[in-house]
Design a protein that fits this description.
mainly alpha; two-stranded antiparallel ribbon; 7 helices
Length: 196
């Protein structure tokens, strides 16, 4: 009897893993083809399965929450995306090394998302935290070799500098107008549109 129960449990788990793989594959196809709402639905399904199979504090669950945040970000659902990124970040901070690149990546997504919400101070805080992680990670590896970590660190630095520029611009803009900025090469073009 116990062998039958163990076999049934194993079959159920294998079936769930297979279903999760199918859902993940469908999500990737839908995302690639810009069916973001459907991809978001499948990602939510995959999160539910991941929580059942692995628990909330698992690498796969954190990754699925981050993927959900990206889908929501792509749909301009910034408030909802922030919640998904925060869930992913909390899990990743619990289960990963303090200087893990996935934590820095989630922080960078949070920063970009906060920029879309015009919460520049929060965005800069997240950028700086991501940069700190990347600088420690690069220092632990060969700091003179060009690799993926150096490239990511440079991208995060560039994003942080852009956020700093947005904060400065925001502080200088007349409260009665709108501002249009355009990044051309290394120059930022600023144009005030005063509404009367």
């Amino acid at each position: 009897v116990s062998r039958t129960i163990n076999k049934q449990g194993k079959n159920n788990q294998e079936r769930r893993f297979k279903n999760e793989a199918i859902i993940r594959e469908k999500t990737e196809i839908l995302y690639r083809d810009f069916y973001l709402e459907k991809a978001e639905k499948y990602t939510n399904d995959a999160i539910e399965l991941s929580i059942i199979d692995f628990g909330i504090n698992h690498f796969y669950t954190a990754t699925l929450f981050a993927n959900l945040g990206i889908l929501q970000y792509e749909q301009s659902l910034y408030e909802t995306a922030e919640l998904s990124f925060i869930k992913s970040l909390k899990i990743r901070k619990k289960i990963l090394d303090i200087d893990h690149e996935d934590i820095a990546e989630t922080l960078n997504y949070l920063a970009l998302n906060n920029r879309k919400l015009y919460q520049y101070e929060n965005a800069l805080k997240y950028h700086n935290e991501a940069l700190l992680i990347m600088s420690r990670t690069i220092a632990k590896s060969n700091p003179h070799a060009m690799n993926e970590r150096n490239r990511k660190g440079a991208l995060y630095r560039a994003s942080a500098m852009h956020t700093k520029a947005l904060i400065e611009i925001n502080n200088e803009v007349p409260k009665s107008g709108w501002i249009i900025t355009k990044l051309i090469g290394k120059k930022i073009i600023i144009k005030d549109i005063i509404i009367e």
